[in-house]
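Action item from last meeting closed. Structure (87 res):
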């Protein structure tokens, strides 16, 4: 199962703004012992291109095992369900 503990996180960090939802997603993944493959979107153009490429409306976006989990709220639900299954 150790191989399943890697998450890919795309989040926005602009010169004048760091998305708080991206920070939250990163913290949740780290607290849940996921190895992070983090991709920082550094401009509005990068953010818009990412959203268009993946057909999503917001960032951050989290992928685990090649599957898109979604944003920080979706990640919270995923991790809660994961924790429930492990109990």
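Sequence:
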């Amino acid at each position: 199962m150790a191989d399943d503990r890697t998450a890919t996180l795309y989040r926005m960090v602009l010169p004048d703004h760091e998305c708080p939802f991206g920070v939250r997603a990163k913290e949740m993944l780290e607290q849940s012992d996921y190895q992070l493959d983090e991709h920082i979107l550094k401009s509005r153009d990068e953010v818009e291109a990412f959203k268009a490429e993946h057909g999503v409306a917001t960032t951050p976006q989290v992928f685990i095992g090649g599957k898109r989990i979604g944003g920080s709220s979706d990640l919270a639900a995923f991790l809660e369900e994961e924790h429930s299954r492990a109990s």
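Note appended to the action item: Residues 2-86 form a domain with the Glutaredoxin fold (CATH 3.40.30.10).
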